[in-house]
Structures are given as structure tokens and as C-alpha cells.
UniProtKB/TrEMBL annotation:
The active site is at residues 161, 249, 283, 461. The modification Cysteine sulfenic acid (-SOH) is found at residue 283. Its EC number is 1.2.1.8. K(+) 2 binds at residues 243, 454, 457. Belongs to the aldehyde dehydrogenase family. NAD(+) binds at residues 149-151, 175-178, 251, 283, 384. The keyword Oxidoreductase applies. Pfam families: Aldedh. Its cofactor is K(+). GO terms for molecular function: betaine-aldehyde dehydrogenase (NAD+) activity; metal ion binding. This is Betaine aldehyde dehydrogenase. Dimer of dimers. Binds 2 potassium ions per subunit.
Length: 487
């Protein structure tokens, strides 16, 4: 199986190679086969990406809003046209089942390009009457923006950053995760085919050190990172030195609260989506599932039955529900938490270890795992695992469960299941989380702003809110009368 791109980087509207960069390989996590050999960007590639982005940005910022919108919408059409090929590539790069990548990756990236393409022509300023004189505002681009991606939703993350940045007239240098370098290159190709001027969207490959070099580059105006809290802290510190603007989309340990009046079947579906989709590798996952004591046993019985029915296997088979984890470090980490949960005294309901898939013995497969009788202080209930490990905790009182749900440094997402409309809104109101769901979980349509409270992040992606993070307002006061001075 090969997924070798024409070259490692896409700079100035074409593929370029770096002769001096470190080796960077992409593995298919279901077999550990190397599917692509790439090179990290050397200093020359980095310098040329920034230089071409600076030049491209000037041309792009002078392009009409309507034309910017047309280019983004055309790129959306191209992603939809190529969805199957892009989905197979994403499956090879990440190990996520094709059943998912066909609907959730390039497809959501296309929705995002279309949304911001439609929004572009509306990005106007305002007229402010000052009684004779007046003021107006202009919404101006920031300049060259840096995007740094995580490995769980590679093309989606690239689109979530590129689409609003480009709609606002910025250029972008995007560094994918070193674990999943491939599909961002395809986005760059699609944008070129759609008519984006050369240099406006560039992709360069590399590890954390390249990310740090990009963040501290004097010619960049903004950085948007999707990654862990630890990386977010480093990026924020570096960006702070030059007061570079930041958007940080970081980790979580989100609560999903299921009250006694909830529809149990729907609540089980939501808990499954909140923990096992993408093999549990989703930042907003509701990994602390608080279930009211009165329905705990019924909930766990249905959950165990349905989890055991999940098809774990070849990600390229469209019948497969759960694929492998993305990498060996992630595999080791998730297995260590499965062991820790048992050592900490949680009750293992199902799963709990490595999974063997016939014909794919080298893959990073683990069983979808449910722990019950989890207590708040256990490490499995406090730390982000980023794998298919669900912690079920009991509760009885509303105030108590809200306090426990909020007792975390994270604040990315939260969910509530209840048929009591007042209670639903009352509880959501008190949850310290940037994205909340009532009677569902993990749906992130592009129209809805997405981002974290507390240590889960700074800024928002998606929705109109993203525009504020990729543009700046210039206010212009126009004097229509004389100027008075004291002396
Ligand atoms: P990571 O923090 O290890 O890496 C993220 C990116 O940052 C990679 O491209 C990496 O090369 C780069 N990087 C590493 N060190 C850097 C540095 N010092 N300076 C600049 N860049 C640096 O995260 P990961 O393992 O790729 O992804 C998993 C994490 O991402 C989880 O914590 C998850 O919750 C989070 N995540 C958040 C969201 C969100 O939208 N909130 C979405 C997906 C993933």
C-alpha cells in the first residue's frame, strides 16, 4: 500500500522537497506498513514558505470578497468530488474506519470551506453616524497566519483553520501533525485547482521544533494550534514574546450527565459516540459519563451489549466500526490507562486490553472499554486518555453532579440528557464548557462556534465567531467640520 505524495511540502502553488530535512514517515496503523516517506522542512523550505505567503497574502487581500468566496466554494466542490479518494487516504494515514472518514473528514472540511466561502462577501464594516461627522470600520486581514494540526482529524483541522483565515484575506502556512502528514497536501492541491493564488496556502511538514520555529517567526501575525494542553502552553509562551495572536484548541475530559428521566437508548447512543467514535481519539469526548443511580444498571446493561456488538477490524472495510489507534505511543498510553483503571479499583464492564484482528496482527487495536464505579479522584477520571476508554460515575443530586462535572482544569465540552426542559437548560447554564449538547453529543456543525473554556483553549473556530479571530477592525473617524484646539 502506498500513499506517497509528489513531494513533502506544498509551497508557492507547487510541490517542493527539502533535501536536508529529517525523515518523516506515515504508517498505516492497521498494519504498521510505511505508506509514505517524507522529509521535514529545512530552514530553506521554512523561509520560502513564509516569503511566498507574505507575497501571496498581498494579492489575496486585494481580491474582492466575492471572488474569495467563489474560490473557497469551488474548493469545497473539489473535496466533495474527490471525497472517496481523500477518505481512503485519511483512513490510511490515521487508521480511522472508512465508514467514518467518508462522512466526517473531507466531507466536513468541504462544509467548512463552503460556509466561509458564503460568509466572505458579508465581511464588511459599519457606518457610524457621529452627528455631522461620521466613522466607519473596515475588517482587515491579519497577514500571514500559521496553522498547526493534531493527528486525529487532519484534513478537517486544516480546513477549520484555512477556510476562515482565507475568507478574511490572510495567507496561511500550515504544519500538519508529523503523525498524519498527507491530506493537508491534498487540500493545498484543491485550493490551487479552485483558483487560489500561489503562496496563499502552503503546507510544510515537520515535528514540534518546526512548529516552534513557525510560532516565533517575526513575519507571522497569528498562530492557530490544535493539540494538547502542554503544547498549547508552549505555543502561548512563545507567541507571547511577540504578542502574536493565538487560537488554541486543546484537550479535554468532558462530562456527559445522564439524568434518571433520560431516554436510555438515546443516552447509550450518545455515550458510544462520545467515547468510541474515531477509536476514542476526539478532543471533545464525554469521557466522564455521570449516570443517575436509579438507571445506572439498565444503562450499563445496554451499553455493554451494544459495545460488544461493535465491529472492530479492517478500517478499509466499510462494515468496520472501530479501527486501530493512530500510533505506537498512543497504543501504549491507552493500554497503560486500561491497566491503571483496574489497579485504581474501577469495575471493568467490558474491554480492557489489546484486541487481536485476524490478518492485521501488527495493528494498534484495542478493545472499546467501559469502567463503572469510577470515582472522581481516580486518574482515569481526571486525565485525558484519548482512546476508547469510558468512565461511568454514579450520582444522585443535581447540584452535586454539576460541581463534580466542573471539578477539572479542562472545559472543552459537556452534555446533558434529560426530558425536563428547565433542568436541561439550568444545568447547561452552570457547566464550565465551551461547547454543550442537550440530548445528544459530539455534533459539531460548522455553523456552531467550537472551542474551550479554562485550559481547553483560547478563541473559537467555526461559526461567525471564527471571523473575529482571523481579522482585525480598523476604525476611521472622518471629521466633516473644523478642528478645535485648546490653544
Ligand atoms: P500535540 O500537542 O502533541 O501536537 C499537536 C501539534 O503541535 C503537532 O503538529 C506537533 O508537531 C505540534 N507541536 C508540538 N510541539 C510544539 C511546539 N513546542 N511548538 C509548536 N508546535 C508544536 O497533540 P497531538 O498528540 O497531535 O493531538 C492530540 C491532542 O490534541 C489531544 O490533547 C486532543 O485533545 C487535542 N485536540 C484538540 C482539538 C480541539 O479542537 N480542541 C481537536 C483535536 C485534538
Amino acid at each position: 500500500m502506498r500513499a506517497q505524495p509528489q513531494a513533502s511540502h506544498y509551497v508557492g502553488g507547487q510541490y517542493v522537497e527539502s533535501t536536508n530535512g529529517a525523515d518523516l514517515v506515515s504508517l498505516y496503523p492497521a498494519t504498521c506498513e510505511v505508506i509514505a516517506h517524507l522529509k521535514a522542512a529545512d530552514d530553506q523550505v521554512l523561509a520560502s514558505a513564509i516569503a511566498t505567503a507574505k507575497a501571496g497574502q498581498k494579492i489575496w487581500a486585494a481580491t474582492s470578497l466575492a471572488e474569495r468566496g467563489r474560490v473557497l466554494r469551488k474548493a469545497a466542490e473539489i473535496l466533495r468530488r474527490d471525497n472517496r479518494d481523500l477518505s481512503v487516504l485519511e483512513t490510511l494515514d490515521t487508521g480511522k474506519p472508512l465508514q467514518e472518514t467518508l462522512v466526517a473528514d473531507a466531507a466536513s472540511g468541504a462544509d467548512c470551506l463552503e460556509y466561509f466561502g458564503n460568509l466572505a462577501p458579508t465581511l464588511t464594516g459599519e457606518y457610524i453616524d457621529l452627528g455631522g461627522s461620521f466613522a466607519y470600520t473596515k475588517r482587515e486581514p491579519l497577514g500571514v497566519c500559521v496553522g498547526i494540526g493534531a493527528w486525529n482529524y487532519p484534513i478537517q483541522i486544516a480546513c477549520w483553520k484555512a477556510a476562515p483565515a482565507l475568507a478574511c484575506g490572510n495567507a496561511m502556512v500550515f504544519k500538519p501533525s508529523e503523525v498524519t502528514p498527507l491530506t493537508a497536501l491534498k487540500l493545498a492541491e484543491a485550493l490551487s485547482e479552485a483558483g487560489l493564488p500561489d503562496g496563499v496556502f502552503n503546507v510544510i511538514q515537520g515535528f514540534g521544533d518546526l512548529g516552534a520555529k513557525l510560532v516565533s517567526h517575526p513575519d507571522i501575525a497569528k498562530v492557530s494550534l490544535t493539540g494538547s494542553v502542554q503544547t498549547g502552553q508552549k505555543v502561548a509562551a512563545l507567541a507571547g514574546e511577540s504578542l502574536t495572536k493565538t487560537t488554541l484548541e486543546l484537550g479535554g475530559k468532558s462530562p456527559l450527565i445522564i439524568f434518571e428521566d433520560a431516554d436510555i437508548e438515546n443516552a447509550v447512543s450518545a455515550a458510544i459516540n462520545a467515547n468510541f467514535y474515531s477509536t476514542g481519539q476526539i478532543c471533545s469526548n464525554g469521557t466522564r459519563v455521570f449516570v443517575h443511580k436509579d438507571i445506572r444498571d439498565a444503562f450499563l446493561a445496554r451499553l455493554a451489549k451494544r459495545t460488544q456488538a461493535a465491529v472492530l477490524g479492517d478500517p478499509l472495510d466499510e462494515a468496520t466500526h472501530i479501527g486501530p489507534l493512530v500510533s505506537k505511543p498512543q497504543f501504549d498510553k491507552v493500554l497503560s490507562y486500561m491497566e491503571l483503571g483496574q489497579n485504581e479499583g474501577a469495575r471493568l464492564v467490558c474491554g480492557g486490553g489489546e484486541a487481536r484482528v485476524a490478518g492485521l496482527e501488527g495493528g494498534y487495536f484495542v478493545e472499546p472499554t467501559v469502567f463503572a464505579e469510577v470515582r472522581d479522584e481516580m486518574r482515569i477520571a481526571r486525565e485525558e486518555i484519548f482512546g476508547p476508554v469510558m468512565c461511568v460515575l454514579d450520582f444522585t443530586g443535581e447540584e452535586d453532579v454539576i460541581a463534580r462535572a466542573n471539578d477539572t482544569e479542562f472545559g472543552l465540552a459537556a452534555g446533558v440528557f434529560t426530558k425536563d426542559i428547565q433542568r436541561g437548560h439550568r444545568v447547561i447554564d452552570q457547566l464550565e464548557a465551551g461547547t454543550c449538547w442537550l440530548n445528544t453529543y459530539n455534533l459539531t456543525p460548522v455553523e456552531m462556534p467550537f472551542g474551550g473554556h479554562k485550559k481547553s483553549g483560547i478563541g473559537r473556530e467555526n461559526g461567525h465567531a471564527a471571523i473575529d479571530h482571523y481579522s482585525q477592525i480598523k476604525s476611521v473617524y472622518v471629521e466633516m467640520n473644523g478642528v478645535e484646539a485648546a490653544f
